[in-house]
Amino acid sequence: MRILLTGGAGFIGRHVHTQLVADGHDVTVLDSLRADVHQQPPVVDELTVADVRDADAVAAALAGVDAVVHLAAKVGLGVDLDDIDDYVSSNSLGTAVLLRQMGRAKINQLVYASSMVVYGEGRYDCARHGVVAPGPRRIADLEEGRFEPPCPYCGEFLSPGLVEEDARLDPRNAYAASKLTGEHLAAAWARETGGRVAALRFHNVYGPGMPRDTPYAGVAALFRSCLERGEAPRVFEDGRQRRDFVHVRDIASAVALAAVADHPEVAAYNVGSGTVHTIADVATELSRAYAGPAPAITGQFRLGDVRHITASSDRIKADLGWKPAYDLTDGIADLVADVSKP
């Protein structure tokens, strides 16, 4: 099958490209090589350097294509409010331009890279009120070190759990809002054209080739950069934030399966390791692997962050037969062994 891979020169994209080629697909890549993602030009076969918002470039790249994997996006949680229009333009408008051209080209298979951030906070249970959705975090609480969200009804302690795909969606920053908008646009496209879309909600992705020294990188990349400078990883809040860290090669295998799967017309899938770790766990594991200084728990916070978000990936395992191959220890060892300079 011939597949157009947007964002295929980026961190995740290069691993997806490798997996798709290994599976026997003919892959062409469209990537803008934007500076906040690519520190140096990557080596990718059949690369068209263009922005996904360029309708003519997208139309040309879609010629002869059977399916599209759409990874191209401005990533991260945002540095400040000045990013908000770039997120909407790069991610929401970019997806809309791609979908319009796919409709014109009568291409009906799409894998859309979404994110766990569409949920906002994860699943929480109150002993008195059952499953509840905590409200927005308050600056006064965070400044006082009260990081755990209380029950919105009784104010008591909540127990975090695994979020499933049918959970309430509550994006809490510009990036999250733009990724959810992309899901909605792709669903509208599928219903209007008879196409099919698999929206893969990636959890915290790490592994070889992670971006370095950029505010848009994930937390594992930021910790690694600190350790490579001989500095302690700086952990926000109290370090007890729960996350699901998934290796980039496991992400690539999920994307490759979704590209050929007979899934429902509009399907959403969590893609996570299925194992809960705290932010401090990851920082500590990296410090040990690098024989570096112990993490520094700073108490700092970002209002757009959520406290806990961990996934149930049972649906993609059941529907597509996917399962992760890496645990955190093996994944961190693979990351430390990486000498590439993305």
What Rg is obtained from the alpha carbons, in whole angstroms?
20 Å
Count of helical regions: 10
Structural category: alpha/beta
SS elements, strand count: 17
- Flag low-confidence runs: none
Q: Can you tell me the overall shape? A: globular
- Strands in their spatial order, largest beta sheet: 3-2-1-4-5-9-14
Beta-strand content bin: 15-25%
Mean pLDDT: 92
Q: Main beta sheet: strand number and arrangement?
A: 7 strands, parallel
Q: H/E element string?
A: EHEEHEHEEEHEHEEHEEEHEEHEEHH
C-alpha end-to-end distance = 28 Å
| Helix proportion range | 25-40%
What would your notes on this structure say?
The protein has 342 residues and is an alpha/beta fold. Helix content is 34%, strand content 20%. The strands form five sheets. The protein has a seven-stranded parallel beta sheet with strand order 3-2-1-4-5-9-14, sandwiched between helices. Helix 3 links the parallel strand 4 and strand 5. The longest helix has 22 residues, at 84-105. The mean pLDDT is 92.
What would you say about this model in short?
With 342 residues, the chain is α/β, with parallel strands linked by helices. The protein has ten helices and 17 strands.
